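Regression test attached.
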Amino acid sequence: MKRLTDVAAPIVLLFVLLATWEGAVRLFDVPHYILPAPSRIAVAFVSHFPSLLHHASVTLAEIVLGLLLGGLGGFGLAVAVFYSLILERALFPLIIASQMIPVFAIAPLLIVWMGYGLWPKATVAALIGFFPVVVNASDGLRAPSEESVELFRSLGATRWQVFRKLRLPASLPTLFAGLKVAVTLCVVGATIGEWVGAHQGLGYLMLQSNALLRVDLVFAAILMLSVLGLLLFGGLRIIERRALYWRGAD
Amino acid sequence: MSRAAIRADRVTKSFADGRSEVPVLASISFEVEWGTWTTILGPSGCGKTTLLRILAGLIEPDGGEVSVGGRGESPGGATAYLPQRDTLLPWRTALDNAVLASEIARRPLAEARPEAVELFERFGLSGFERAYPSQLSGGMRQRLALVRTFLARRDVLLLDEPLGALDPLTRATLQDWLLSVWAELRKTILLVTHDVEEALLLSDRVLVLTDRPAAVARDLRVDLHRPRNRASAELAETKGRLLDLLLEGR
């Protein structure tokens, strides 16, 4: 019974919201270029589906590449900062300061440096996505108790063995927590990258449709982006469950 | 092999606490013969764990000398240390936890696994080889930690309150079991506990430590015949005398 209400509750809520929206647009006769009714958005979504799919595939590639770069870079930074006090002192203020820079300010620069292709968008995504990974992975590497580390040392373990067999597996739960935050940020980052300069992708489609007063298509692109985000998040959870197989044991 | 398995000669240690130095071990000297069971008894927080960590080669004493295994090698190489807190790795199966020492020493696992399976049988863990620590009861986890310690293939075992957190029945079962394995494998055991009855039931010799900074207050031979009986009047009488001694010392 619990599962049924779990599934039904968000669907019912969504239906009520959409019905209210539809009713309000019809009742007050809101022009479609201000706010289209959900039915109109649905029609736009279906009729433009092949085009949406194409733009989504471009954005997906940017997000995945951004997440890979941000994830690997973030984890690498966390390891470097963990093992070197000098690097920690030097890097942490910069890492935190990097998050104060509005990505809108540097995205145009990245276009100038890297061109109109995949890379500047993936870089924007990576730049905001790496932060939760660094923070969470740093915590994860510190997770093993002093006793566990001493046990390894008493067995004559090398630093590499302590990392490989103790700290790395112990850091996985928080690493995945960081990656799940990062993936949602990467969706936003890739879209921002496309707004600044692109000729394809869902962000580009939103911008173009908005200029043509096709607000229904803007909403259809947003819908597609949400679906993309949910799929990526779900995919990450599947990988997480596989990597943390031992958690489901009890 | 030299006569003594463990030799501590005027060992001192203090820890920095803010600006002041807090002495933990005043001056500890004792020797332990090969194949014997010695128990260190003392009030909680008196420095028993610090002494064990020095013998395991994890920290250096401030003064005095320590030799373990009698081969002039570093203490760590001769001992298997069982820390007080649970140090089983949650992402490894019981069997993989048990062979950790062999893995770190780069012994072939094809050799180590059958040994582990054999000890699993002795420790009543058969059938749980592939279970994860979270699926085991407290008593089983402790047994598994002990199997791991035995499988380290060291002659001297340093056990830090291995039975401390267990219910009385599990505790009694494990005491009997430990005795039988010890009688067979003839390891040198140094056990830390604050349970007087446990000390008398298990050991050949009891070293009573004073409150911090710790020194050896009493060095008692336990002459009770083995196998010993928890309910015997002899044990109860010795326990009473020992408790009196402990109270006197305060």
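Expected vs. actual: identical. Chain A has a mean pLDDT of 92.
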